[in-house]
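#struct-help
A.M.: can someone run this one for me? Single chain, 169 residues.
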Amino acid sequence: MTLDELAAARRTHKAFGPEPVSRATLLELFDVARFAPTHHLNQPWRFRVLGPETLAALKGVAGEKEAQKLDRAPTLVVASAVLTGDLVTDEEDVCAAAAAIMLVLLAATERGIATYWRTPNVLRTRPGRETLGIPPGERFLGLLHFGPAAREPAPREREPVETYVEFLA
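D.P.: on it. Structure tokens below:
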């Protein structure tokens, strides 16, 4: 499968089967992140795989409506970027971490694993961050859902490249 085909095959899934993704497979996915572009190879991304106790604690601080959404997928991973306090470096590192996340999502798609990249509000709160052990020097970037697809979403129409590319003289 070419990169174009892989990118086109990636979908946002909101319905998952019950089987969790194995630890070994998750490590394979996270290993792909190391190929993301990063300044000075500092690899600022962090991935935290939520176990049942941590998930229960997060649901406790999330509230009923958000807690239901946390049950969508059998495997949840919090992605963040370590910050330095330097504005330029932090901006570069957040972008590098986002690129690493996308590589992980593409690697999952290649293996037939359904994914969903969410940014739930609970992880922007102090109680949510503390529940997961995210220190003040890290920026939460997403809650990644992984698992078998319960159903395959239809592809969505995308804007043509001409709408967002400009060639300057």
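A.M.: thanks! Helices lie at 3-9, 23-32, 52-62, 64-69, 87-110, 126-132.
D.P.: also worth noting: The mean pLDDT is 94.
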